[in-house]
Specification:
378 residues; alpha+beta; Heat Shock Protein 90; 12 helices; 5 strands; rod-shaped
């Protein structure tokens, strides 16, 4: 009873102290527990081989000696394995959905260990630990487990690389769109400049002949043929401007009102990639939300400003649905099962810059706000 209470207390403290995804925390705990169990059983087996008399007694110096020897032998390879395989996977900023199930892998190996030591009613756990074949079996089980952990870690890292490539490709697409728009503006301007002398000659002819009504009609038609004088630059920051231009065209094609008030300089502490990901994900979600709305008052309002050492960004859009969140305040995607990968990426970037990210719905609108702080400025 006392042992169970102590174990429960330790587990409760562990999960309260470690602020992370429950599945990721449990995966780490079970992985370390399996390694600790192998260490204990191996030490007891070696004690039975070198000190057979003392091995059957409780808490002898021989037990501590063998335990220390096993830890010395395992410390270097285990530390290298943890540093190169487990730590990068655990520290990676993923969607969190995979960790809901990955903890089952070390849990399975933990149950195998428990069954081996405590499921055999004909032998005590001490007798089982003293048999070398059982130690070799547990060693083989752990080798298999660590191979599976390696595969899982590689898959998680590859998934993160794929998400990073997707964000970079998204940025390149929007920059290409900006370049195309600029080229069209330049072509239209050149065409207008080339034709302007013909228009002047015709205007002079109308004036000479006194055909003022015809001149008035001609000028009206000419003004309609002039190139579009809409904004070709929302802000000085190249990355942000590329994203804003790209989605401005998308909003126009879908008859969505698009309002932008952004003041971001080109030289800023937030990288171009991170700026593209923040604006791209937030505006893309806003555009998708507005597409699903009915009525003529669909709108997207984008504001951003660099104030001191903080970059503040807000993206608001029409939204009449219901915001779904997990228990740890992560948004559930409305486009697929699981968490919203875009909003999670934005949160990760905000956290990287010691900032915050907040989402809420109110009065038929969805409000997204992000603040990034300059880490070099106290």
């Amino acid at each position: 009873m006392s042992a169970n209470f102590t174990l429960s207390s330790h587990l409760t403290f562990y999960f309260m102290a470690v602020k992370n995804l429950f599945g990721k925390t449990l995966f780490t705990l079970l992985t370390i527990s399996n390694l600790a169990n192998l260490t204990v059983v191996s030490a007891k087996c070696l004690e039975g081989f070198f000190f057979p008399v003392l091995a059957t007694q409780d808490y002898r110096w021989s037990s501590s000696l063998m335990f220390f020897a096993v830890e010395i032998c395992l410390s270097v390879p285990v530390l290298l394995y943890m540093k190169m395989v487990i730590v990068p996977a655990v520290k990676s900023e993923s969607s969190g959905l995979e960790w809901r199930y990955l903890w089952l892998i070390p849990a399975t190996f933990y149950l195998i260990w428990c069954y081996l030591l405590y499921g055999n009613s004909s032998h005590s756990s001490l007798e089982i630990a003293l048999q070398p074949k059982n130690t070799l079996f547990l060693f083989a089980i752990n080798i298999g487990a660590f191979l599976i952990y390696y595969v899982v870690a590689r898959l998680i890292l590859e998934q993160n690389k794929s998400l990073e490539l997707r964000d970079k490709n998204h940025q390149l697409i929007m920059q290409a769109m900006q370049y195309k728009n600029l080229q069209e503006k330049i072509t239209d301007a050149r065409r207008a400049k080339h034709d302007v002398r013909h228009h002047i000659a015709l205007i002079q002819e109308y004036l000479t002949e006194g055909k003022l009504d015809a001149l008035h009609d001609y000028l009206n038609e000419y003004s309609k043929s002039l190139p579009d004088n809409s904004l070709v630059r929302f802000c000085e920051n190249t990355a942000a401007n590329a994203v804003l231009l790209y989605f401005a065209q998308q909003a126009k094609d879908n008859c969505i009102n698009y309002f932008v008030k952004v003041k971001i300089p080109n030289d800023i502490f937030v990288s171009d990639t991170d700026i593209s990901v923040i604006f791209g994900n937030l505006i893309e979600n806003a555009l998708e939300s507005c597409k699903n709305e009915s009525g003529n008052d669909r709108k997207i309002l984008i504001r951003a400003n660099l104030t001191g050492s903080s970059l503040c960004i807000t993206v608001d859009n029409t939204f009449s649905g219901t915001l779904k969140c997990t228990n740890d305040d992560k948004l559930v995607s409305t486009k697929h099962k699981g968490l919203g990968l875009g909003t999670q990426s934005v949160k990760n970037i905000a956290a990287h810059y010691n900032g915050v990210c907040h989402f809420k719905t109110e009065d038929g609108m969805f409000y997204a706000s992000v603040m990034c702080c300059n880490k070099t400025d106290n």
